[in-house]
Every structure is written in C-alpha cells, then in structure tokens.
Queue: 2 jobs
Job 1
Amino acid sequence: MVWQTIWGQIVDLSLVAVLLRLMTPILLASLGGLISDIGGVINIGLEGLMLMSAFTSIAVGSSTGNWAVGVLAGVATSVLISYGMGFFSLKMKVDIIITGFAVNIFGSGFTIFLMSKIYGMTGNYSPTGAPRIPVVNIPFIEDIPVLGKLLSGHSLMVWIALLSVAFCMFLIYRTPYGVHLRSVGEAPYAAQSLGIPAKRIQYSALAWSGAFAGLAGAFMSNGLTNMFVKDMTAGTGFLALAVVLLGNRNPIGILLGSLIFGLASALATIVQTVPNSPIPSQFIQMIPYVVTIAALVFFALRNKRRLATMP
Amino acid sequence: MKTKKFSALGVIFLSIALLLSACGGNTNNNGGNAPAPDNESAGGEKINAVYFVNSTLGDKSFFDSAEAGMQKAVKELGIKAKTVEGGTNQADWAASLESLVSSGSYNVVVVGTSQMKDITIDLAERYPDVKFIFFDDVIDGVPNIYSMLYSQSEGSFLVGAFGALVTTSTELKGANPDKVIGFVGGMDIPIINDFKSGYEQGAQYVDKDVKVVASYVGDFSNAPKGKELTMAQINSQKADIVFNVASAAGLGTLEGANEKGVYSIGVDGNQNPLYPGSVLTSMLKNVDQSIFRAFELMQKGELKLGTSEVLGMKEGGVGLSKDELYEKHVPQAIKDKMVEIEDKLSKGEITVKSSL
C-alpha cells in the first residue's frame, strides 16, 4: 500500500514537484549560509532573517499588489539586518554567534510585534488576493508528456534557486572577489596584510547571506503559501546550516544535500497520508532528519577513506 | 498631613459602607421574600471578577472569545469585571496572577489553558477565599476552583459527520466519488488524537465506508508543511474535505484545500470567512458561552466549585459555526442532517467516546 502510493507519485512525477517545492527554501538559505561561512563570518541568524523577509514580502506585496516589489522589499530588509549584524560583530566586536542568536530572537518577536501593530493580529496574517510569485509554464515543453511535468509548472523561485547554485559556483571559484572571500575566511590577517580589505569582504559576505535568506523567506510566505504565520520558518534556517556542512561547503554539495533532504521530506509527506498506516507518525516525521544524518555519516566516512589513501 | 487625609477618607468610606450594608439589610428584612439584587451571588457578596489573559488579546479566537463572555456577563448579569493581559512571556504569568489575587480586589478569577494549570492550583490553595473559574483543562479536587473542558470529541464528531456527508454528496462540485476525508493535526499528542477519534466516529456514524486519512505537521506553526500535507492527502488519497486541527499551521491546510478546489473545516474559532465556499464550516469551542454560563450558575449559587465539567453539545460548549457562508454554500440536505445529528447529541441519543 505504502509502496504503491509512492510508486504512483514517482510515475506521475508529482513527487518531483513536491520535492522541488520543499527543497527550494532550504537550498536558498544554505547558499546564504555557505557564503557567510566561507567568508569566516558564519551567519546563524538565517532563521530570523527568513522570518523578517517572509513578513516584509507579504506585507509589501499585498499592499502594493505586486509580488516582485514584495520580494525585493523582503530581500532588502534581510540584507539591511545582515549589515546590522556586520556592524555589531565586525565593528563592535560582538561574537558572530551571539549576533546570530540575537537576530533569530529578534526576527521571531519583531514580526509578531509588527503584525499586531499593523494588522491587529498576533498569530497570522493572510491577506485575501495577495499576489504571489508566479509559476513558470514553458510553452511547447509543457505539452510534452514527461518533460512537461518535469520542467514546467514550477514556481519562478525554484528556478532562481537552481540558478543561484551556478551563480555561487561562479562567484566563489571564478571571480577575484571569490578568491578574496576564501582567503579572508581562511586567514583574515594574512589576507589583510596582502591588501585585501578583510572587513569589507566580510560585510559583503553577510550581505550575500542576507540576500539569499531573504529570497528563501519571501518564497515561504509568497510562494509556498500566501500568508504569514508567526514562526512559520519552523527551523528551516537551522536545517540550512546543517546542509552547509552536509554539502561539504561547496554549492554543488549543497544542492545535493538539499535534494536529499527535500526528497526525504516529500516521501515523509506521502507516507503520512496513507490511511491506517501501521508506522507511528513520529517515526515518519523523523525520516528527513535520519536521512540527513545518514548522508552526513556516509560522506564523512568517504572523505576519511579518501584522506587515508592519499600519499 | 497626608496620613490625616487618608484616614479621613477611610472614615468616610467606612461610614458609607456601613450605611450601605445597613440599607441592604433593611430592604431584605422589610421586603421579606424580595428577590436578591442581580449583582449578588448566593453568598451575598458581589462578583468582582478579573480575567487574566496568559497572552495578549487579539488572537481572534480563544482569548478573545473568553473576553466576549466576560463582557456579556457584565452586561447581562451586572457583575464587575476587569481584564488583565499577561503578555507572551511565560515567566511573568505566575507573578502577575499572584499580584492580582493577593491584591484582594477581586473575588473571582477567570483563567484558562493548560499552561496555567499548575500556577492556578498553587494560588487557589494559598488564597482559599478567592474563587477560580478555569477553562480548557481539568482541575479536580481543589475546593475553590471550578474547571471546564470543551468536549473536542463531540465537536469533532459533528464535523466528522459533516465531512462524511460532504464527501458522499453529489450536489457539491468539489466532492469526488472516493469516500475519503482528511485530518491534519498539529502533533501526534492525546488532545489532538481526541479530535481525530471524534472525527472518525462521526464519519463512521454517517457512512461505514468513509476512510479518514490523518497526517501530523509536527508543530503548530509550519504553515507551508501543513499545506504540503493537505495537498498530498488530496492528490494521492483523493480526500475532498480536510479538517484542520493544527492552529496556525492549519491555515496552510485551509489554503491548500482552497487551491485544489476542495473543502476544509476550520477549528476553534469561525474560520469560514478565510476562504469562502471552501471552508464550509468550523468546529467551535464556545468559550464565551461557557464563561457566561459559569457566572450565571455562580449567581444562582449552583456553580459546583471543586469539580470539573466537560462541556459538550448539550451544555453549548462546542458546536458548528453556522454563519451566512454556511447557509450559502452548504446544500440543504446536509444542513438538515446536521440539525438532526446535533439534536441527537444534545439529547444523549448518540454517545461519543473520548480517547483521553
């Protein structure tokens, strides 16, 4: 029964659609985490940034009637707060981890505060008829049986997330900026002694992480759903940090990590809906995390073996 | 100087109080069997209540509903009442509530939710003169606490029957031939499963073949996940009506059902207007009515302090939300059938087993 259902979903490719939807916020947020990590200023405030962006984008989007303006406003807010993090951690020398925690707590509380002040609600804000990030239907391809379902009908943000992977590859490994970023992350003082403006690079690394976290947050409130619910990110920002490590600190690895996690989540979603399932729901809800840990162990063992065989 | 003024004021107040009490005694003596004035409980003391909100008002659901009940009691029963918002910091609640109780200005305290249970029991034992009306959890055996719980199993029975009627309906456009109805819970915990058990019993009561598919979000805030689970129920199991028991995460459920052109059932408050025509009805916990009822009983001297009650259909503790949207979008045949089932529940002809 369970296998039949899963197989049915794989055959009619709706699993792919679910997988891509679930993967996108994690992928975007972990790309943000990656750039800050490479720059040596690991941003653990992703969760708070996502919440702020999620709220701003739906609020601005619904009041202007334009999703693009909403998303941009969300990203701008997130980048602004990231600069604030930079100010405190780089200029005022507050520990970056503590700054990140502060942002997480701030994001959760401040969005509720704004929601109650602006809309008079404390739990959720769901405007009717708010615009949302459009779905991309590719002409001609959408009519081809298998390919159509595989490539067409996904949210624009899914494509942005996938393109972001390529963009990050390029940014980190093919530009002078990327070289500077990596050197600053490895040894900031050495980089500074060579004339690389370490502080400025780290500021920009935080800003990039803010931009990607902003996109992820905007997608949660404006694409996946059309509402803001308090604490709606529900740990996605922290998962993203795990995916950064799972992905071995490189964009392709992160794409793979997000895919594994997204696939596990999609499967858990389907398995849960099987009626009278003998498996307790708690176990099913564990699947994504168990798979992630298993993958982490697998990659760690493989790396270890590779290191061992090196001369 | 200052103390003089205060003592003068004190004397004045005392004399007024004496005068008033004398007057009260007189009328009663002269009138013989004259009815006691409205705002006196059987014990002879005025009800001066305070409602402590262990959060903030404005949730459009639970706490606001209780506040409405307080206002109604003030208007119709003539009690004195004040509402104090405790804020979202859980650490402050115990101290704030204790300062209200120890001030001695109030003789009745209204407070609710399971998070406040231990705090309330502790205070009730230390301040035996204050009466407590406690809602949404059970406290037994403390002589000055009356507690009431809403029978979510009976309420869910109603919406389960409603769901079964919808999925077997031929009049509703979104209903498919598969007899499957959905349930999205917040967490796999006893309270939520009590909803589920009632929902299943209700569905089975209408049609033995109706299957219930249940999923759990894992928390009460992840709306995107709530939506994803709902879509999976609709896509892979052909559910055509889904019951949201996941608080804020359940808003995703309502949105998912709306997007797929099928139906959903709201919870706790009236969620029908969120997606008109898709959210067909909501299961209500009538907190306002229950609080009003408690004050009414207290005035008559019939409130059973020291016990707890489960308020079901009969006591008006739970019910369906029947607003104009319900009237507009639900077929007449289903409405009639629901009235019949409600009637049977209140008369006790149907008994719902609680899984708690």
Job 2
Amino acid sequence: MSSMDAKCPHNTETNCGDCRMNALCLPLALQTNEVAQLDEIIQRGRPLQKDRHIYNAGEEFKSVFAVRSGSIKSYTVSNDGQEQVTGFHLPGEIFGMDGIAHNHYTNSALAMETAAVCEIPFSRLQELSIAIPSLQNHFFQLMSKEITNDQHLITLLSKNSAEERVATLLLSISNRNLRRKLSGARFRLPMSRADIGNYLGLTVETVSRVFGRFQKQDLLKVDKKEIEVLDFDKLRALAN
Amino acid sequence: MHVIQTPDEAFQLLSGTESEFLSPLVNCSLDALFKSNSVSAPIALNLHFHEGLKSDYLQLLIKELNLYAQKFGQRKAAKTWLRGTPLNCLSAAEITEIAFLSASNFEMDEDIYSEYGFECSVADINESNLALMKGLRFTTLLLNIDAAHTPKTQQIWPLLDLIKQYKFQELQLRLNASNSDVATLHHWLESLLASHPQLIELYGLEEMSEPILLDQLTKLMSARGYTLIGDRYFVSEHHPLLRLKQSGKLQYTPWGLSHPKIKDWIGLGIGALGKIGGGYYQNTDKESEYQSNLSQDKLPVQSSGKYPNDNTTQVSALIEQLICLHQIPNPENHPLIGENPRIYEIFQQACHKGWMIEEGKNLSISSQGLNHLHEITQNLLCS
C-alpha cells in the first residue's frame, strides 16, 4: 500500500493523500514511531457546532489548526464593530497562522457549519523538533507557503472588478477541491452570500447580480449554495 | 569607542552630523550599560542580515535573541526591524521562523509609533516576497534605492505599483544620491513621490558630482507636501514623526528619528550596533568571533561606550535637539549655554552668519543654516 493510500492517523475517515497535513508528515519519511509521536501532539477535538469559535482575536497564539471537515471563516472586527471576513478554510487546509508573528491571533476563527479541526500546539512541536530535527523547519516551510498563498489571494481579490473577484474566488475554491481529489466543477459553497460579499468587498446584491450574470452567460449553474462550473476557460479569462 | 563602519557590514552612518554625535563615546563595560537600562520602557530590536553569511547564521542570531530575551524579555518591543538584506539572505521558512521567534520572546507594542519593518532592495520586490511579509503582518517596508542609475534602468514604476497593491501601512524609501547627479536625482524624486511614500530618506548629497544643498532640497520637497526632519528625512503631512517634532518630542538614533519613549535599541547580528542605558555597544564584525561567543552563550559584543561626563552628555543632548527639532531654547534661558562662553559664542556666530534665527523663546536653524548643521555640531563638540 502506498503511503498516499494509508489512512490518516489524524482522521481515520481521511486518506493521507487527501489530508493537507500530509505535507507535514509524509515528505519527511517519518518512521512509524515518529508518526505516532507527531500524532500524539496533534489534538483531534470534538466536532464544533456552527458559529462556534476556535479562537478569538487577541488570544495568545498557541496553535495552528487544520480543518478535518466542515468549513471555517476567519474575520476581524474593526473599532466601530464592523466585521471583515479575511478568509475561508476548507478541509485539509491550515489556519491560525495569523498569530505567528505577533504571538496573538489577529483574526477570530469561527465554524460556518458543523466542523472538526486538528490542533497543532506550537510549544509541543518545538519539543518534538528536538527528536525530529527537520520537523520545525519543515513546518515553517509549510507555514510560509500557506501565508504567502493566502495573502496572494487577498491581494488579487482586492484589486479587480466585481466579476473578476467572484470568478477568482470560485476558481480558488474549485482548485482547492481538486487538490483534495474532489470535483472542481461541482461543489457546494459553505459560506453565505453575505460572507462572500464581505470577503470580496462587495454588497450582497452585487454578489447575487454577478452570480445571475454568470448563469445567463452559461458560465455557471447556481442552485442556492450548489455550484456547477460550465465553462472554466471563460471563468479563468474573466478572473484575469 | 570607535564605531566600525565598513561596506557591507551591518551598520553604516549615513550622515556626517550624526557621526559627530557618536564621536565622543569612550569605552565602558557592557555591564555598566545594562545596569542603567530602564526596566519598563519599550525597546527596539534590529536584526541584521547581509549577504555572504554562513548557513548557520540564523541559528546563531536566534541564540543571540534568546540571550537578550533573558535580559529584556519582560519589556515590550515597540519596533522590530529586519535590517540589511533579509529577503535575499533568508528563505521564506526562515523569515517565518524569525518572525515567530522574535514575537515569542518579546511582546509587541502596538501604537502609532510602533513599527514592524523590513529593509529590501529593488531586486527583492516580487509578489511572493511581498505576500509573505504582508501575511506575516509587517507594517513598514523600507526600500533601498541607488540613485546612480535612472528610475527607468531599475524599472522602478512597476515595482512601486506592486508594493502599493500589498498596502503596507508605511512605505519608506532610502535613496543613495552619492553617485548621482542633479537631473537624475530630480527624476528619481518625481518618480518616487508619485507613489506617495510616507517617508523618504536622502543621503550622500555632499558626494554628488554637483552637490545639492539641503535647503534647496527642502524647498523642493516642501512644495510637494513633505517636511524635513533631522538632516535627511522627509515625511508626509500628518506623519507621526512630524507630530512628534512639532510637540518637541523626538529622539535621534542611528536608525532614524523616533519617539523618546523607546530607550533601548537591541542590535543583533554581525557588526550590529545597539543603544542601551544611554550608551552604545557594537557586536564583533568577524563571523568566527560571532559564532565562537554565541557557542559559549556569551553576547558577541566587541566594544561598548558611553559619554564620558555630564558636560559631554549635555552637549550631545543639545546636538540631538538641533538635529531633531532644528531649534534649541534661547541661550539666555539655557543653563548649559549660559554657563559655557564657548558654546554661547558658537550660537552667537551662527546667528551672525544667518544660520540661526531667534523665534520667540528659541533659536531656530534657518534655511541657510540647514546647510551648515554639520559645522555647528562639530564646533559644539570641540567646545
């Protein structure tokens, strides 16, 4: 059995190949006992109900998290109480890195639906790095890549037209599903139109209008939260 | 104490006036500096990276960081800077690691005078680097530019556009004019001002083929909404440093002008300069010594110094006022000047030459006087 077919020690319902954590585990060619050591520090919590917080902005940074199932929204709250969505995190993806450089979380993270996460406490990771020396460096590589990719997306989304932003978001979710060996053409949007609008800096009405336009142009089929992408080439061209 | 400044080393003084400020330092023990540090005031951290260092440099610097955390870790870091060429020397993983470790060892102060900054050069500007630094919540980008080559040669405009997309809180530009000419410098300023940086630092004016005078430059920049502070920094309207200048609360440091609440500046890395307890220290500029000291859990300090006596300290304070505020209290009201005929005479002569003018209770540097700031400070130190 190849290592990619192995069951993920973090979640027996997930194959290692689907789990973003495999970037942490497998390339290091960890021995079985080392996987067990790593598995011991990774905490698999109980399922989280919808609207349950994983952490709040301002709390001390202690861990990063990986989404096992469901979806997570990260957001900040301005001084005048306005919520700003800063990211959506899907299964296999890592979040919580916003705290890494300030020792406290700058965002809050909330389950958008029933979800399950793995928690990786940083202090324990540093302990384990003594026994597995390349682990910490590998983890920082993973972190830096995720941080860079997240920021790329945020910047991309902030500078384009409404159509370009919506198209970019849909393509991003499509690609992220493909990485998990799910369909990139048919998927469910776990977030509300309001959250999409907030994240993209658009009103709910504009988001709905754009979806409507994309349907008329045969780019998409939209049925509430269910999306089917009909024309990837046109969607990519629109995302510029 | 002789401050080492060699090319490519961590520390360079970019101003003749400022070098006078450091010239009276005499050797003292490092312990003497540590004893006089302010226990609760915020600190600043300068972590130095430059090209050609060995692969274990980061781990050594982390060790140095841990040693300082033992002494200063209870104090907040109001400024944390990655100096030199961090984006060129470190991988994305290493930058993430050092960002994490500095934040773990020192709680960050977050007010309008705080900075979480990094230096870079034109060659470092690309989407990946900017995305990483923005994602790590760096607030301030300082771009080093050599004005010897034209903006077109360095393809500066698309780079400035790219920087703008990442919306750092503050864009600072440091322009080396020493090998440039007047026309090229003007072209640079026109190009750079279009990107509305919050701060432009200009140095090497005296070394230009046709030197441009500071008062000429000040007029040019003032017409574009930038005000001179210190002897080479131009800041935009409403900049926090300008407010500090206007309220008389600005301190000079070798790393720029700053709020005086930051008392101690920790320099980490080979050749790094630090300011603690009113004095200065400098790390060894030899890689082998840096490594050897840290492997024995010793700070890699080569020299440390302070001002020798109260009189020198007071003269330095006067020079600091001149550099930072461009004015001093009227000599008739100033105890040091009143009691020192030589110093009094220096200011009298400065007034006589039109370099300083009376403005209410103060003596202020005139436009013409800006061009002679170095001379005034030299004379004060010789007094």
